[in-house]
Each structure stands twice: as C-alpha cells, then as structure tokens.
Write a structure and sequence with these properties.
heterodimer; A: mainly beta; six-stranded mixed β-sheet; four-stranded antiparallel β-sheet; 52% strand; B: mainly beta
Chain lengths: 115, 114
Amino acid sequence: AQTVTQSQPEMSVQEAETVTLSCTYDTSESNYYLFWYKQPPSRQMILVIRQEAYKQQNATENRFSVNFQKAAKSFSLKISDSQLGDTAMYFCAFMKHRGNTPLVFGKGTRLSVIA
Amino acid sequence: DTAVSQTPKYLVTQMGNDKSIKCEQNLGHDTMYWYKQDSKKFLKIMFSYNNKELIINETVPNRFSPKSPDKAHLNLHINSLELGDSAVYFCASRRTSGGQDTQYFGPGTRLTVL
C-alpha cells in the first residue's frame, strides 16, 4: 500500500518570503502521479501543482514549484513570494498511474503567511 | 458553471437518523469518488465509481451506501448516523479514459451528528 508522509504539521512564513513544504511517499509502483492540493478556510480543495513520475523535469506553476526526487521518493513544494492568500492547509497526494485509483493523502501542513 | 457540486453544504442531524448527500459533476467524467475528511483534517477514500459501477469500497461500515444513477451523479446515503460520522465529505470526479489524472473536488459537505 502507498503511504504519504508530511512531517511538518505547521509552518509559518513572512509575506514575500519563500517557504518549502516537505513530502515523502512510499510505493512499489514505477509510474504514478503526485499532487499538491491547497485547502483554504473555505474548505475547497484546490489543485496547486501536479507531477508525473516519468517526467524528470520539475513542475512549475507561477510562484509554485516542486522538487521531485524519484529515487528518494521525495516531493517538496516551494512557494515563492508568499502572499496572505497562500494561508491554507496543504496536502501532498499520490495516485497510481493505472486504473480508477483514488488519491492517497498525507496528513497535511498548515501554512500561515504573516504580514 | 460549477464543475462538481454537492448538496447540502451543511447538514446537522441527530444520532440514529438517516441522511443523504448528493453530488453532481458536469465535466463529462467517468469516475467519481467519495472522500471523508475527519476532525484532524485527514482525507481518506471511501468509495469509487466508474461508469456507474462500484470499483472501490474501502472498509466503510455498511451503514454507508453509495448510489450512482448515472455517470454524472454519485450520492451517499448514511443510515443510523453515529457521532463518529461527523466529518466533511468530499465528492470528486476524474476522466480516466484518455489517461487524465486530475481529480476535481466538490465544495464538501460538513456533517454534524448530535
């Protein structure tokens, strides 16, 4: 079974600074997807960024980028130029490439951006 | 237009009651999911349906019965509600044909059992 570990329950960062959220996972699959979802106080689950395991290039979406280390089974999220609106729970998630498989989530990291 | 919608958004009820949560997606996706988010914010899969057929049932009590009348709808009926059922329930959908990988979530339903 796949597991996803987020070792930082809470983090804080000053506005305009950069912060990195950690995620490690365990799987015997060779092809899979990794995601970061954001859940603000509104409770909506918002996709931040996705990575396909067979792609070596790290995904980037505006101020959000990942450091994907497949051998180390690590998938960290870097948020640059942090904004107050980035305050949220952030969930790392894994999904097998094949079939109708669900997401397996980590326990989340609560990020607070401080003015 | 809302891609994945759920009704109701909030549900407060007494122990022992039966309640339903509805989910609809207008994305043309073929797979739908129910996830449960507990009080510690942990999200876990409950059920998955593909083209109206149950694919995944993750050790969920049989008081929970999903129903998919068509590909665009996946409802969740809960019998004899218990205090431990209090949680936020999320519906999600995805197109698995063509290898689309992103799941889109509904707004969630916060269920409170008193």
